[in-house]
């Protein structure tokens, strides 16, 4: 019973850590966007961000607190930073951070690199082999209806594909909001399952078991760092985190 309790406690701690990191990430993003206009009805980017935060079950008080902080002009000034890294056996990483101290952030990352067989690359050394795209996953319209909806709105999408019971639309990052509006105009009760802008590798690699362990350790360290907001990689056999 003691061991089972330890396992449950560790699982709960991991879940709490994940939630705390998620809340911190959204808090920073909402605060930064609210500085450009704290009224969601006028600031459409802020409204979309709030909607996404709610979908990810971020508490209302986290959202409200950071909007109020932006209104008052208090709080930190966060910087968007992107770091590119090489890992073992041809693996690569794109690490996006939102930080109030870039020196602290890069110092932490370099420590992770040295522990896990990775090293920092120069700007563009990794991202040239990735596509920066927006992805919208939706239910309620088939591919033909999606193509018709975006065509009516004069939007050119990069790809539309059916996956299980959803339709996945790939578009330019700047067109994500317009695509969602076009889909909603075509069907008011359409379900937008998810939407995000991300780095997608053009080619993938498979790692041997010993390198998988190194990368899992690296990803774990990144996951515990509040400055790290997103991590993208080109590994096709990395187990999903439980």
Distance between the termini: 22 Å
Strand order of the largest sheet: 3-1-2-8
Radius of gyration from CA coordinates: 20 Å
The arrangement of helices and strands along the chain is: HHHEEHEEHEEHEHE
SSE topology sketch:
Layout: H1 2-34, H2 44-55, H3 60-71, E1 79-86, E2 92-99, H4 102-116, E3 119-121, E4 130-139, H5 143-152, E5 159-163, E6 166-171, H6 176-186, E7 191-201, H7 209-223, E8 228-233
Summarize the structure.
The protein is 45% helix and 24% strand. With 242 residues, it is α+β, with helices and mostly antiparallel strands.
Molecular structure report:
This protein has a four-stranded antiparallel beta sheet with strand order 3-1-2-8. A four-stranded antiparallel beta sheet has the order 5-6-4-7, with helices on one face. Mean pLDDT is 88; it is low at 1-14. The chain has helices spanning 2-34, 44-55, 60-71, 102-116, 143-152, 176-186, 209-223, and strands spanning 79-86, 92-99, 119-121, 130-139, 159-163, 166-171, 191-201, 228-233. Strand 1 (79-86) and strand 2 (92-99) form a beta hairpin. The protein contains seven helices and eight strands; from the N terminus they run αααββαββαββαβαβ. Helix 4 (102-116) runs antiparallel to helix 7 (209-223). The chain is α+β, with helices and mostly antiparallel strands and 242 residues long.
